[in-house]
Design brief:
Pfam families: ADH_N. By secondary structure, the chain is α/β, with parallel strands linked by helices. Helices cover 24% and strands 27% of the residues. The protein has two domains: 2-146 and 297-325, Quinone Oxidoreductase, Chain A, domain 1, CATH 3.90.180; 149-274, NAD(P)-binding Rossmann-like Domain (Rossmann fold). It has helices at 39-45, 95-98, 139-142, 148-158, 172-183, 197-206, 234-241, 280-292, 307-315; strands spanning 2-5, 14-17, 27-37, 62-69, 81-84, 87-89, 109-110, 122-126, 131-132, 164-168, 187-192, 210-213, 222-227, 242-250, 271-274, 299-303, 322-326. Strands 3, 4, 5, 8, 9, 16 and 17 form a seven-stranded mixed sheet that branches. Strands 12-11-10-13-14-15 form a six-stranded parallel sheet, with helices on both faces. Strands 1-2 form a two-stranded antiparallel sheet.
C-alpha cells in the first residue's frame, strides 16, 4: 500500500510504501477510493491536538470497498462499500459507553489521529465502526459526509429547534448542514471570513437568507448559532448575535483561545456548548436523512500525492466546499 505519513510534528506528509495491512479480529481491510480533507487533519499535522504518536497517517472521511474481513466479522463482506468516520473504536465499558454517550468514551481510538487513517490506498478499520453506504452516489461526493456531515449533524441537533440559525464558517460542514437546515424549514444565516464572496455566494445559492462577514450582525437576532471555524474570537461574536435564551454550539475539536467578553453577552440564559466527536447512531441518523434532504456536496478532487498542497490551501481558506483526495 501507499500512504501519506506524518513522521514528526509540523512536518510535511511524505509518501511511503508499506506492506498491505491484514485485518485482525473484528476488523476489515478497505481499499480506499476517496478521503475527504478535514480541518482536523490540519490540527494533526500542526501538532495542535494532544497525545499524537508519530508516525501517523491522517484522514477520517474515508470511502472505499472491503477487500478482506477478519475473524468474526458478520456484518460486512468483501466488495461492500463502506464509510469510515472519525470515531474508530470505543471501549464499551466506561461510564459514558454504558450510558449511551460513546462519543465521550474514556479509551477511544480516532481514525487519522490515534490510528492510521485514509491518506492512503488501504486502511484497517474496526468493522463495528464502518457504515454501510450501498451503491449509487459518487465516492468523492460521499466522502465529506463522513465527518463534515456527521459532526455537522450532531451540532445541528444540539442547536435545538432554532428557526433562525447562524453558521459561522461556511466550508465543508457549513455547506452540508445548511442544506439539511433549509430542508427542515429553518432560515440559515451564513458567516464567513471578510471578503470571502465565493463562500457567501455559495451560501445564497444553497438557500441562505443572509450571508456576510463574521464580524457583521444579522438583520434580526438568531435563535442559535453553530461555529465551525476554529477561531475563538467567533464565540463572543456569535453570543452577541443570538437572542435571549439562544444557544451557541462550538463544533470543532480544536479552537484558538476564546477572548474575554462581558458577562452581558452570556446573561439572559444564553447557552454555550461544545460538540465532542460523534456516536454511531449519529452516523446512522445522518446517512438516512442526507438523501431525504437532497444533500449535494461541493467537492474538488485532488490526487493523493498532492495532500500537502491541499492542506495548505485549506489552511489559507482557499477551498470552496470540500476537498477530497483520491489514490
Amino acid at each position: 500500500m501507499r500512504a501519506m505519513v506524518l513522521p514528526a510534528p509540523r512536518a510535511r506528509l511524505r509518501m511511503e510504501e508499506r506492506p498491505d495491512p491484514m485485518p485482525g479480529e473484528g476488523q476489515i481491510r478497505v481499499r480506499i477510493s476517496a478521503c475527504g480533507v478535514c480541518r482536523t487533519d490540519l490540527h494533526v499535522v500542526d501538532a495542535e491536538l494532544p497525545g499524537i504518536r508519530y508516525p501517523i497517517v491522517p484522514g477520517h472521511e474515508i470511502v472505499g470497498r472491503i477487500e478482506l474481513v477478519g475473524p468474526n466479522v458478520t456484518t460486512h463482506a468483501p466488495g461492500d462499500r463502506v464509510g469510515i468516520p472519525w470515531l474508530g473504536f470505543t471501549c464499551g465499558k466506561c461510564r459514558f459507553c454504558r450510558e449511551g454517550m460513546e462519543n465521550l468514551c474514556d479509551a477511544p481510538l480516532f481514525t487519522g489521529y490515534t490510528r492510521d487513517g485514509g491518506y492512503a490506498t488501504h486502511t484497517i478499520a474496526d468493522a463495528r465502526y464502518a457504515f454501510p453506504l450501498g451503491e449509487g452516489d459518487n465516492d468523492v461526493e460521499l466522502a465529506p459526509l463522513l465527518c463534515a456531515g456527521l459532526i455537522g449533524w450532531r451540532s445541528l441537533v444540539l442547536a435545538g429547534r432554532a428557526e433562525r440559525l447562524g453558521l459561522y464558517g461556511f466550508g465543508a460542514a457549513g455547506h452540508i448542514i445548511a442544506q439539511v437546515a433549509i430542508w427542515q424549514g429553518r432560515s440559515v444565516y451564513a458567516f464567513t471570513r471578510r471578503g470571502d464572496t465565493a463562500a457567501q455566494d455559495l451560501a445564497r445559492r444553497l438557500g441562505a437568507v443572509w450571508a456576510g462577514a463574521s464580524d457583521e450582525m444579522p438583520d434580526e437576532p438568531l435563535d442559535a448559532a453553530i461555529i465551525y471555524a476554529p477561531a475563538g474570537e467567533l464565540v463572543p461574536a456569535a453570543l452577541r448575535a443570538v437572542r435571549k435564551g439562544g444557544r451557541v454550539v462550538c463544533a470543532g475539536i480544536h479552537m484558538t483561545d476564546i477572548p474575554g467578553f462581558p458577562y452581558d453577552l452570556l446573561w439572559e440564559e444564553r447557552q454555550l456548548v461544545s460538540v465532542a466527536n460523534l456516536t454511531r447512531q449519529d452516523g446512522l441518523d445522518f446517512l438516512r436523512i442526507a438523501p431525504q434532504a437532497g444533500v449535494r456536496t461541493e467537492t474538488t478532487a485532488y490526487p493523493l500525492q498532492h495532500a500537502n498542497e491541499v492542506l495548505s490551501m485549506l489552511r489559507n481558506g482557499e477551498i470552496l466546499g470540500a476537498a477530497v483526495l483520491t489514490p
